[in-house]
Amino acid sequence: MQKYILIIGACGQIGTELTMALREKHGNDHVIASDIREGNDNLMESGPFEILDATDYDALEEVIAYYEINEVYLMAAMLSATAEKFPMRAWNLNMNSLFNVLNLGKEKKIDKIFWPSSIAVFGPNTPKDHTPQNTIMEPSTVYGISKQSGERWCEYYFNKFDVDVRSIRYPGLISWKTMPGGGTTDYAVEIYHKALSDGAYTCFLKEDTALPMMFMDDAIRATLQLMEAEGNRIKVRSSYNLSGMSFTPSEMAQSVQGKLPNFKMSYAPDFRQAIADSWPSSIDDSNAQQDWGWKAEFDLKRTTEEMLANLKPD
Ligand SMILES: NC(=O)c1ccc[n+]([C@@H]2O[C@H](COP(=O)([O-])OP(=O)(O)OC[C@H]3O[C@@H](n4cnc5c(N)ncnc54)[C@H](O)[C@@H]3O)[C@@H](O)[C@H]2O)c1
Protein backbone atom coordinates (compact mmCIF):
# COMPACT_ATOMS: atom_id res chain seq x y z
CA MET A 1 0.00 0.00 0.00
CA GLN A 2 1.24 3.50 -0.88
CA LYS A 3 1.98 5.73 2.10
CA TYR A 4 0.37 9.18 2.18
CA ILE A 5 1.20 11.35 5.18
CA LEU A 6 -0.54 14.42 6.61
CA ILE A 7 1.31 16.76 8.97
CA ILE A 8 -0.96 19.05 10.99
CA GLY A 9 0.77 22.14 12.37
CA ALA A 10 3.51 21.67 9.75
CA CYS A 11 4.75 25.29 9.81
CA GLY A 12 6.00 25.27 13.41
CA GLN A 13 9.44 24.63 14.86
CA ILE A 14 9.23 20.83 14.62
CA GLY A 15 6.67 20.47 11.81
CA THR A 16 8.84 22.37 9.32
CA GLU A 17 11.82 20.04 9.72
CA LEU A 18 9.67 16.93 10.08
CA THR A 19 7.88 17.72 6.82
CA MET A 20 11.16 18.13 4.94
CA ALA A 21 12.57 14.91 6.43
CA LEU A 22 9.44 12.93 5.52
CA ARG A 23 9.40 14.43 2.00
CA GLU A 24 13.00 13.39 1.53
CA LYS A 25 12.14 9.85 2.62
CA HIS A 26 8.76 9.23 0.98
CA GLY A 27 8.70 11.70 -1.92
CA ASN A 28 7.34 15.25 -1.94
CA ASP A 29 3.88 14.36 -3.23
CA HIS A 30 3.37 11.77 -0.52
CA VAL A 31 3.71 14.25 2.34
CA ILE A 32 0.95 16.85 2.72
CA ALA A 33 1.80 19.78 4.97
CA SER A 34 -1.03 21.67 6.68
CA ASP A 35 -1.43 24.51 9.16
CA ILE A 36 -3.63 27.53 9.87
CA ARG A 37 -0.89 29.74 8.39
CA GLU A 38 1.65 29.44 5.60
CA GLY A 39 5.18 28.21 6.27
CA ASN A 40 8.62 29.08 4.94
CA ASP A 41 9.35 29.04 1.19
CA ASN A 42 11.13 25.71 1.32
CA LEU A 43 8.14 24.00 2.87
CA MET A 44 5.55 25.74 0.69
CA GLU A 45 7.38 25.09 -2.57
CA SER A 46 8.51 21.51 -2.03
CA GLY A 47 5.12 19.76 -1.92
CA PRO A 48 1.36 19.92 -1.29
CA PHE A 49 0.05 22.32 1.37
CA GLU A 50 -3.44 22.82 2.81
CA ILE A 51 -4.80 25.45 5.19
CA LEU A 52 -6.38 23.22 7.83
CA ASP A 53 -7.65 23.82 11.36
CA ALA A 54 -6.85 20.84 13.61
CA THR A 55 -9.99 21.48 15.67
CA ASP A 56 -12.29 21.09 12.62
CA TYR A 57 -13.12 17.36 12.34
CA ASP A 58 -15.02 17.64 9.06
CA ALA A 59 -12.21 19.57 7.38
CA LEU A 60 -9.67 16.99 8.57
CA GLU A 61 -11.83 14.15 7.31
CA GLU A 62 -12.15 15.83 3.92
CA VAL A 63 -8.39 16.34 3.46
CA ILE A 64 -7.70 12.77 4.61
CA ALA A 65 -10.18 11.35 2.10
CA TYR A 66 -8.98 13.60 -0.76
CA TYR A 67 -5.29 12.68 -0.43
CA GLU A 68 -5.97 9.08 0.72
CA ILE A 69 -3.93 9.74 3.86
CA ASN A 70 -2.98 6.76 6.02
CA GLU A 71 -0.52 8.36 8.47
CA VAL A 72 -0.98 11.57 10.51
CA TYR A 73 1.53 13.61 12.54
CA LEU A 74 -0.36 16.01 14.82
CA MET A 75 2.05 18.86 15.65
CA ALA A 76 -0.51 21.65 16.26
CA ALA A 77 -0.64 22.74 19.90
CA MET A 78 -0.32 25.73 22.18
CA LEU A 79 3.02 25.51 23.99
CA SER A 80 3.82 25.88 27.68
CA ALA A 81 4.49 29.61 28.14
CA THR A 82 1.66 30.77 25.85
CA ALA A 83 -0.76 28.26 27.39
CA GLU A 84 -0.31 29.86 30.83
CA LYS A 85 -1.66 33.09 29.30
CA PHE A 86 -4.62 31.50 27.48
CA PRO A 87 -5.53 28.39 29.53
CA MET A 88 -8.90 27.54 27.98
CA ARG A 89 -7.73 28.18 24.42
CA ALA A 90 -4.74 25.92 25.08
CA TRP A 91 -6.91 23.17 26.55
CA ASN A 92 -9.40 23.34 23.67
CA LEU A 93 -6.75 23.28 20.96
CA ASN A 94 -4.53 20.64 22.55
CA MET A 95 -7.35 18.25 23.46
CA ASN A 96 -9.84 18.73 20.60
CA SER A 97 -7.16 18.33 17.93
CA LEU A 98 -6.03 15.08 19.58
CA PHE A 99 -9.56 13.71 19.89
CA ASN A 100 -10.20 14.49 16.23
CA VAL A 101 -7.16 12.52 15.11
CA LEU A 102 -7.74 9.65 17.57
CA ASN A 103 -11.35 9.37 16.39
CA LEU A 104 -10.21 9.24 12.75
CA GLY A 105 -8.02 6.31 13.89
CA LYS A 106 -10.94 4.70 15.69
CA GLU A 107 -13.08 5.05 12.53
CA LYS A 108 -10.21 3.33 10.62
CA LYS A 109 -9.89 6.32 8.30
CA ILE A 110 -6.14 6.44 9.12
CA ASP A 111 -3.76 3.62 10.13
CA LYS A 112 -1.05 5.32 12.17
CA ILE A 113 -0.74 8.46 14.31
CA PHE A 114 2.16 10.39 15.82
CA TRP A 115 1.33 12.79 18.64
CA PRO A 116 4.05 14.53 20.66
CA SER A 117 3.97 14.76 24.42
CA SER A 118 6.48 16.67 26.53
CA ILE A 119 8.60 16.65 29.68
CA ALA A 120 5.86 19.02 30.92
CA VAL A 121 3.82 15.95 31.90
CA PHE A 122 6.04 15.79 34.99
CA GLY A 123 5.52 18.08 37.96
CA PRO A 124 7.10 19.41 41.14
CA ASN A 125 6.74 16.05 42.97
CA THR A 126 8.46 14.05 40.23
CA PRO A 127 12.05 12.87 40.93
CA LYS A 128 14.11 15.52 39.11
CA ASP A 129 17.23 13.63 38.07
CA HIS A 130 17.11 10.84 35.50
CA THR A 131 13.32 10.98 35.72
CA PRO A 132 12.08 7.44 35.03
CA GLN A 133 9.47 6.43 32.44
CA ASN A 134 6.95 5.53 35.14
CA THR A 135 6.91 7.89 38.10
CA ILE A 136 4.84 10.52 39.91
CA MET A 137 3.17 12.80 37.36
CA GLU A 138 1.41 15.80 38.82
CA PRO A 139 1.88 18.54 36.21
CA SER A 140 1.23 22.07 37.47
CA THR A 141 0.90 23.86 34.12
CA VAL A 142 -2.05 24.00 31.71
CA TYR A 143 0.19 22.65 28.98
CA GLY A 144 1.43 19.78 31.17
CA ILE A 145 -2.10 18.87 32.22
CA SER A 146 -3.17 18.75 28.56
CA LYS A 147 -0.18 16.58 27.61
CA GLN A 148 -0.69 14.16 30.50
CA SER A 149 -4.40 13.83 29.66
CA GLY A 150 -3.44 13.33 26.02
CA GLU A 151 -1.11 10.48 26.98
CA ARG A 152 -3.87 8.74 28.92
CA TRP A 153 -6.25 9.06 25.95
CA CYS A 154 -3.64 7.73 23.50
CA GLU A 155 -3.12 4.63 25.64
CA TYR A 156 -6.89 4.24 26.03
CA TYR A 157 -7.54 4.42 22.27
CA PHE A 158 -4.77 1.86 21.66
CA ASN A 159 -6.17 -0.56 24.24
CA LYS A 160 -9.87 -0.10 23.49
CA PHE A 161 -9.97 0.64 19.78
CA ASP A 162 -6.65 -0.73 18.50
CA VAL A 163 -5.54 2.72 17.30
CA ASP A 164 -1.83 2.64 16.39
CA VAL A 165 -0.82 5.89 18.07
CA ARG A 166 2.82 6.52 19.02
CA SER A 167 4.32 9.29 21.09
CA ILE A 168 7.50 10.84 22.48
CA ARG A 169 7.91 13.16 25.45
CA TYR A 170 10.14 15.68 23.68
CA PRO A 171 12.56 17.69 25.81
CA GLY A 172 13.22 21.36 24.90
CA LEU A 173 14.20 21.43 21.23
CA ILE A 174 17.04 23.46 19.75
CA SER A 175 17.00 24.29 16.04
CA TRP A 176 18.11 26.99 13.59
CA LYS A 177 15.67 26.61 10.68
CA THR A 178 12.53 27.86 12.48
CA MET A 179 12.07 29.92 15.62
CA PRO A 180 10.46 28.23 18.65
CA GLY A 181 6.75 28.77 19.27
CA GLY A 182 6.29 29.98 22.87
CA GLY A 183 7.84 27.36 25.14
CA THR A 184 9.83 27.55 28.38
CA THR A 185 13.04 26.31 26.73
CA ASP A 186 13.00 28.95 23.95
CA TYR A 187 15.99 30.65 25.60
CA ALA A 188 18.21 27.85 24.30
CA VAL A 189 17.49 28.99 20.72
CA GLU A 190 17.26 32.76 21.31
CA ILE A 191 20.74 32.77 22.91
CA TYR A 192 22.43 31.83 19.62
CA HIS A 193 20.54 34.46 17.60
CA LYS A 194 21.36 37.19 20.14
CA ALA A 195 24.96 36.05 20.55
CA LEU A 196 25.48 36.64 16.84
CA SER A 197 23.41 39.84 16.49
CA ASP A 198 24.16 41.64 19.81
CA GLY A 199 26.99 39.73 21.50
CA ALA A 200 24.79 39.53 24.59
CA TYR A 201 21.60 37.84 25.81
CA THR A 202 19.34 38.28 28.83
CA CYS A 203 18.03 34.88 29.85
CA PHE A 204 14.50 34.54 31.27
CA LEU A 205 15.55 31.59 33.45
CA LYS A 206 18.01 31.54 36.37
CA GLU A 207 21.58 30.55 35.61
CA ASP A 208 21.41 27.21 37.48
CA THR A 209 18.13 25.87 36.03
CA ALA A 210 19.05 22.54 34.46
CA LEU A 211 16.55 21.23 31.89
CA PRO A 212 16.45 18.31 29.45
CA MET A 213 17.16 19.48 25.88
CA MET A 214 17.71 18.00 22.43
CA PHE A 215 19.04 19.14 19.07
CA MET A 216 16.33 19.03 16.38
CA ASP A 217 18.14 16.48 14.16
CA ASP A 218 18.00 13.99 17.04
CA ALA A 219 14.30 14.73 17.65
CA ILE A 220 13.41 14.18 13.97
CA ARG A 221 15.47 10.98 13.81
CA ALA A 222 13.76 9.66 16.97
CA THR A 223 10.32 10.47 15.53
CA LEU A 224 11.00 8.64 12.25
CA GLN A 225 12.58 5.70 14.10
CA LEU A 226 9.59 5.32 16.43
CA MET A 227 7.11 5.52 13.55
CA GLU A 228 9.02 2.95 11.49
CA ALA A 229 9.44 0.42 14.31
CA GLU A 230 7.40 -2.80 14.16
CA GLY A 231 4.22 -2.39 16.19
CA ASN A 232 5.11 -5.21 18.59
CA ARG A 233 8.26 -3.31 19.67
CA ILE A 234 6.21 -0.35 20.91
CA LYS A 235 5.57 -1.35 24.52
CA VAL A 236 4.70 2.14 25.76
CA ARG A 237 1.46 3.46 24.28
CA SER A 238 1.21 6.58 26.42
CA SER A 239 4.48 8.32 25.50
CA TYR A 240 8.20 7.49 25.60
CA ASN A 241 10.75 9.39 27.69
CA LEU A 242 13.48 10.68 25.38
CA SER A 243 16.81 12.13 26.44
CA GLY A 244 19.35 14.14 24.51
CA MET A 245 21.38 16.34 26.85
CA SER A 246 20.87 18.35 30.02
CA PHE A 247 22.42 21.71 30.90
CA THR A 248 21.87 25.02 32.72
CA PRO A 249 21.75 28.49 31.10
CA SER A 250 25.17 29.23 32.58
CA GLU A 251 26.65 26.07 31.01
CA MET A 252 25.09 27.09 27.73
CA ALA A 253 26.61 30.58 28.02
CA GLN A 254 30.04 28.98 28.57
CA SER A 255 29.52 26.82 25.52
CA VAL A 256 28.75 29.92 23.41
CA GLN A 257 31.76 31.74 24.91
CA GLY A 258 33.92 28.83 23.74
CA LYS A 259 33.14 30.02 20.18
CA LEU A 260 32.43 33.73 20.81
CA PRO A 261 34.66 34.75 23.74
CA ASN A 262 33.12 38.25 24.10
CA PHE A 263 29.56 36.95 24.54
CA LYS A 264 27.87 38.21 27.72
CA MET A 265 24.92 36.58 29.45
CA SER A 266 22.71 38.24 32.05
CA TYR A 267 19.65 36.87 33.86
CA ALA A 268 16.17 38.31 34.42
CA PRO A 269 13.90 35.39 35.38
CA ASP A 270 10.20 35.89 34.55
CA PHE A 271 7.02 33.77 34.89
CA ARG A 272 8.68 30.98 32.92
CA GLN A 273 11.02 30.26 35.87
CA ALA A 274 8.13 28.71 37.82
CA ILE A 275 7.31 26.45 34.87
CA ALA A 276 10.94 25.37 34.53
CA ASP A 277 11.19 24.73 38.28
CA SER A 278 8.35 22.21 38.03
CA TRP A 279 10.10 20.16 35.32
CA PRO A 280 12.82 17.46 35.51
CA SER A 281 16.53 18.27 35.13
CA SER A 282 17.36 15.12 33.20
CA ILE A 283 15.49 12.14 31.75
CA ASP A 284 15.99 8.36 31.82
CA ASP A 285 15.11 7.05 28.36
CA SER A 286 16.11 3.41 28.79
CA ASN A 287 12.68 2.18 27.60
CA ALA A 288 13.13 3.96 24.24
CA GLN A 289 16.66 2.54 24.00
CA GLN A 290 15.51 -1.02 24.70
CA ASP A 291 12.25 -1.04 22.75
CA TRP A 292 13.24 0.66 19.49
CA GLY A 293 16.98 1.26 19.73
CA TRP A 294 17.07 4.99 20.50
CA LYS A 295 20.42 6.75 21.00
CA ALA A 296 21.02 10.52 20.95
CA GLU A 297 23.95 11.90 18.94
CA PHE A 298 24.14 15.62 19.78
CA ASP A 299 25.69 16.99 22.98
CA LEU A 300 25.90 20.69 23.93
CA LYS A 301 29.27 21.24 22.24
CA ARG A 302 28.11 19.85 18.91
CA THR A 303 24.79 21.72 19.20
CA THR A 304 26.62 25.04 19.69
CA GLU A 305 28.86 24.33 16.70
CA GLU A 306 25.86 23.52 14.47
CA MET A 307 23.78 26.48 15.65
CA LEU A 308 26.50 29.11 15.25
CA ALA A 309 27.73 27.72 11.93
CA ASN A 310 24.22 27.76 10.43
CA LEU A 311 23.03 31.08 11.88
CA LYS A 312 26.20 33.01 11.12
CA PRO A 313 25.54 35.80 8.60
CA ASP A 314 27.31 35.21 5.24
N1 LIG B 1 9.45 22.66 20.50
C1 LIG B 1 9.64 22.03 21.65
O1 LIG B 1 10.64 22.27 22.35
C2 LIG B 1 8.64 20.99 22.10
C3 LIG B 1 8.92 20.24 23.25
C4 LIG B 1 8.01 19.30 23.69
C5 LIG B 1 6.86 19.05 22.95
N2 LIG B 1 6.59 19.77 21.83
C6 LIG B 1 5.34 19.49 21.11
O2 LIG B 1 5.57 19.28 19.73
C7 LIG B 1 4.47 19.79 18.96
C8 LIG B 1 4.99 20.81 17.94
O3 LIG B 1 5.67 21.83 18.64
P1 LIG B 1 6.39 23.05 17.91
O4 LIG B 1 7.50 23.47 18.79
O5 LIG B 1 6.65 22.73 16.48
O6 LIG B 1 5.22 24.14 18.04
P2 LIG B 1 5.06 25.52 17.22
O7 LIG B 1 4.27 26.43 18.07
O8 LIG B 1 6.36 25.96 16.68
O9 LIG B 1 4.16 25.02 16.00
C9 LIG B 1 2.81 24.67 16.14
C10 LIG B 1 2.13 24.90 14.80
O10 LIG B 1 0.74 24.60 14.96
C11 LIG B 1 0.00 25.55 14.23
N3 LIG B 1 -1.36 25.61 14.76
C12 LIG B 1 -1.82 26.31 15.82
N4 LIG B 1 -3.15 26.14 15.95
C13 LIG B 1 -3.53 25.32 14.93
C14 LIG B 1 -4.77 24.77 14.53
N5 LIG B 1 -5.91 25.04 15.19
N6 LIG B 1 -4.79 23.95 13.45
C15 LIG B 1 -3.64 23.68 12.77
N7 LIG B 1 -2.45 24.19 13.10
C16 LIG B 1 -2.40 24.99 14.18
C17 LIG B 1 0.76 26.85 14.39
O11 LIG B 1 0.42 27.77 13.37
C18 LIG B 1 2.20 26.37 14.33
O12 LIG B 1 2.72 26.43 13.03
C19 LIG B 1 3.48 20.36 19.97
O13 LIG B 1 2.54 19.38 20.30
C20 LIG B 1 4.35 20.64 21.18
O14 LIG B 1 3.59 20.60 22.34
C21 LIG B 1 7.46 20.74 21.40
UniProtKB/TrEMBL annotation:
Name of the protein this chain belongs to: NAD-dependent epimerase/dehydratase family protein
NAD-dependent epimerase/dehydratase domain span: 5-229
Coiled-coil segments on the chain, per record: none
Homology family: Belongs to the NAD(P)-dependent epimerase/dehydratase family.
InterPro entries per UniProt: Epimerase_deHydtase, NAD(P)-bd_dom_sf, NAD(P)_epim/dehydratase
